[in-house]
Write a structure and sequence with these properties.
This protein has 12 helices and 9 strands. It is α/β, with parallel strands linked by helices. The strands form 2 sheets. Strands 5-4-3-6-7-9-8 form a 7-stranded mixed sheet, with helices on both faces. A two-stranded antiparallel ribbon has the order 1-2. The longest helix is centred in the first third of the chain and has 15 residues. The mean pLDDT is 95. Bound molecules: S-adenosylmethionine.
Length: 292
């Protein structure tokens, strides 16, 4: 079969499996697996594929028909215009999470500030590494309960040339936030987190691409979705420097409840940032300058 015929057959297979953007995904998978971009279809559509090329594309299309996201099949997702490798233990980074990056950069002001950043539940490292790519004097630490996620984040830092300023540690916030190499309280200028925030009962009803492929530890926020915020916020308040900034991603409809948790922990809620769909997606809060 030619490349064009292979893509046409893949589109039909993906449509039958209920994949929404079947044409886009079929083109992307076929062209990327042949080492090019979508323009390859125009340039080489009439080319007969080798048996090995056809088998490679067929295996990828079968995975997509089983509703595995294209990013996981290709092992990579772009976030903040940077490439992030993924594995089974990492959340597939969402474009919505760029809201947190924009909000933090707008709030921190001076790009040359030597900020010390702590990322709670770092996953692929996308939030911390995107910030470090914009703040050349900043350094950061990412923690995650998953060793495989931490390994992937460290690999991503290496690939992005950020290893000298980013360190990753297997650590659960349930153990507190006193880290081996940052034992002093009030150590951090900026703490960021996109914690698991889906109510447990809602996970099975999510799109198959999410429910079946994002790791449960990255999704499950307990009965009302707020368990991680209840655990994290008081701990973060205890290790932020006076005047330090806390930036949290929140789920749809959670902003008010999480803001109440921030205030209960003695933090000053600064603002809510909305994503491209107009959803309140990120909360910013400050630690008071002086203990009251
Ligand atoms: C929603 S994902 C966010 C990943 C990444 N920061 C992003 O924005 O794509 C939440 C992350 O928190 C981690 N996590 C869950 N419970 C944790 C805990 N108790 N301590 C540390 N990390 C935890 C998960 O493994 C997952 O990587």
């Amino acid at each position: 079969m030619t490349l064009a015929e292979t893509v046409t057959a893949a589109v039909a297979r993906l449509e039958a499996a209920g994949v929404e953007a079947a044409r886009r995904d079929a083109r992307l998978l076929a062209c990327r697996l042949l080492g090019g971009g979508p323009e390859l279809l125009l340039a080489q559509g009439d080319r007969e594929l080798t048996a090995e090329e056809a088998a490679r594309i067929d295996a990828a299309v079968a995975r997509r028909a089983a509703r595995e996201p294209v990013s996981r099949i290709l092992g990579e997702r772009e976030f903040w215009s940077l490439p992030f490798g993924l594995n089974a233990a990492t959340l597939d980074p969402r474009a919505d999470s760029e809201t947190l990056i924009e909000a933090v950069l707008a709030e921190t002001g001076d790009p040359a500030a030597p900020l010390r950043i702590l990322d709670l539940g770092t996953g692929s490292g996308c939030l911390l590494l995107a910030l470090l790519s914009e703040l050349p004097q900043a350094t950061g630490r990412g923690i995650d309960i998953s060793a495989d996620a931490v390994a992937q984040a460290a690999g991503n830092a290496g690939r992005l040339g950020l290893s000298a300023r980013a360190r990753f540690l297997v650590h659960s916030w349930e153990q507190g936030l006193t880290l081996d190499d940052a034992p002093q309280a009030a150590a951090w200028d900026l703490i960021i987190s996109n914690p698991p925030y889906i109510a447990s009962s809602e996970i099975a009803g999510l799109a198959p691409e999410v429910a079946g492929f994002d790791p449960p530890a990255a999704l499950d926020g307990g009965t009302d979705g707020l368990d991680a915020y209840r655990a994290l916020i008081p701990l973060a308040a205890g290790v932020l420097r006076p005047g330090g900034l806390l930036a949290l991603e929140v789920g749809y409809g959670q902003a008010s409840a999480v803001e109440a948790l921030l205030q209960a922990a003695g933090l000053e809620a600064l603002r809510r940032a909305v994503d491209l769909a107009g959803v309140e997606r990120c909360l910013l809060a400050r630690s008071p300058l002086e203990a009251s």
